[in-house]
Design a protein that fits this description.
The chain is of the alpha+beta class. 55% of the residues lie in helices and 10% in strands.
């Protein structure tokens, strides 16, 4: 891509960046994700997915506590957790959007002073543009091949040779590198290997084997640019730079160009030895230049063809998968259609029987409603008649109640009259008894209780009469006039019952008996 260099990571020398006690060897910076294009395997990671991933509480907590570590290459056993022995870099802050609006996230990684970190640092210094690939789990939409943001669980970014996102290559940031003292990649890696302890050597070897570095470690330095070789061949001198290794896809082409460079060197040497063949050498050089250009063009075309074939393979796989799903859906639809027709016939028969049953039930209910309506009419008439009878009975009862109340008032008045009459009769009876005995009525009343009857009055009078008789039989006189004798008899002239018929109302035997006046 034309803007690849502006997004690639750059290595920063340890003298400028190592403020952590020798733990940081350098810094890698470059694109880590692309939310406008799909990855090599056809999956699409949206911008919303990455926004959600870097707002996850666990990811934010990791950034607050130093950053998210990454390993050298993806784990072979498909594990999700990070192995501390394989850690090579750490991303201390979330990636930012690129300024050129190309839909990429730019990340910054510190290369750690670990066995795997030393490998990363050495490869980056040797000119290898390392890639970065995300590690996480999630569900993929079968039709759009988009990773569902809500299901994606981001773990980390790993440093890889071939990233899943094309263009996700990192540049090593550096201020000054002595090109004259630049060692070969093999020498650098051997130096790191010898400096490690036994555990570090084991991790180092595992990392190298995981990266498939056998073809790179062939002892030849990586080269800088094919253009420099072409210009050197035209001028008849040795190239100052070597062709660089762009990525793992160009590894075979790099080795081919390195061999071609040796061939050019031998051709230049033969030019110096045979000046007489200069014209032929120049023509050969031009032919070789044209050949080299054709080879580079062929390389680019092969790359494009390779990418197109991969995309076609992915498309074919998707098409086959969609065809298979379509056939499944068609078969499922046919089965569902057949099942639907069968169930529809059964349902029609079933509902027909139910409809007949419902119609007969409705007819019966209508007959019942008509009968109930007739009964209701009869009940209504009966209720109306009963209501009229009740109203009449209520009227008669009210009249009787009024008469009874009136009679009750009269009876109460009669009772009060009877009480007054009884009291008057008792007073008169006591007075008559007192007159007959020749004493006062008070003497009789003093001997009576608060509640008394006519019999009580008679008993008291009888007692007084006996006392008087006893006194008369005494042999001496008691302040009474001599020879005064009194004949006691009842005075019937003042009979309280003489005018009893003049009392309002009727005097029954019970009241006379209560007053002690019953004859």
């Amino acid at each position: 891509m034309s803007n690849l260099k502006t997004e690639e990571l750059v290595l920063v020398d340890e003298k400028s960046f190592d403020d952590k006690g020798g733990s940081v060897l350098g810094v890698l910076e470059g694109p880590v994700a692309d939310f406008m294009h799909s990855t090599r395997n056809g999956r699409f990671y949206s911008e919303r997915l990455w926004e959600k991933a870097f707002k996850d509480p666990i990811i934010l907590e990791m950034f607050e506590n130093g950053g998210i570590p990454g390993e050298l290459d993806h784990p072979r056993d498909d594990r999700e957790d990070i192995d501390s022995e394989k850690i090579c870099v750490i991303m201390s802050e979330p990636p930012k959007k690129s300024r050129d609006s190309q839909g990429k996230l730019i990340g910054r990684f510190e290369i750690l002073n670990t066995p795997c970190g030393k490998i990363v640092h050495t490869l980056a210094k040797a000119g290898l543009k390392l890639g970065v690939s995300s590690r996480g789990t999630g569900e993929v939409d079968d039709y759009t091949n988009e990773v569902i943001p809500e299901s994606y669980d981001f773990k980390c970014f790993d440093i890889v040779i071939l990233p899943s996102v094309q263009g996700a290559r990192l540049n090593l940031i550096t201020e000054s590198l002595d090109q004259n003292k630049k060692q070969t990649l093999k020498e650098e890696l051997q130096k790191i290997y010898l400096e490690e302890d036994e555990q570090g050597k084991r991790i180092f070897v595992e990392a190298i084997e995981g990266l498939n570095m056998q073809k790179i470690l062939h002892g030849k330095p990586l080269v800088a640019a094919a253009e420099e070789v072409r210009q050197a061949a035209r001028k008849g001198r040795k190239p100052r730079k070597r062709i660089k290794k762009e990525d793992l896809n160009n590894n075979k082409e790099s080795l081919f160009l390195a061999g071609l460079n040796e061939k050019l060197e031998s051709e230049n040497k033969s030019q110096k030895e045979g000046a007489g063949a200069a014209v032929d050498n120049i023509e050969a050089s031009e032919i070789i230049t044209q050949l080299q250009e054709a080879l580079l063009t062929n390389v680019n075309l092969n790359k494009q063809l390779f990418e197109a074939q991969k995309e076609r393979a992915v498309s074919n796989a998707k098409a086959e998968e969609l065809d298979a799903k379509l056939n499944e859906q068609v078969n499922a639809y046919a089965k569902l259609q057949e099942q639907f027709e069968l169930e529809k016939d059964q349902a029609v028969k079933k509902f027909g029987k139910k409809l007949e049953l419902y119609e007969s039930t409705i007819k019966k209910l209508k007959d019942d409603v008509a009968a109930l309506g007739k009964q209701l009419g009869e009940k209504t008439l009966s209720e109306k008649k009963l209501k009229e009878d009740l109203e009449k009975s209520f009227t008669v009862s009210n009249q009787k109640l009024l008469e009874a109340k009136k009679n009750s008032d009269n009876i109460q008045k009669q009772c009060d009259s009877y009480k007054k009459l009884a009291h008057s009769i008792a007073e008169r009876y006591i007075d008559s008894k007192a007159s007959a005995l020749g004493i006062t009525s008070i003497e009789i009343k003093n001997r009576l209780n608060e509640s008394y009857t006519i019999d009580d009055v008679d008993n008291v009078c009888r007692t007084l009469r006996n006392q008087s008789v006893s006194i008369n039989k005494l042999p001496f006189a008691l302040d009474n006039p001599a020879g005064a004798r009194v004949k006691l008899r009842e005075d019937r002239s003042r009979d309280p019952l003489k005018n009893v018929n003049k009392v309002v109302g009727q005097v029954d035997d019970f009241l006379l008996d209560l007053a002690g006046l019953k004859k």
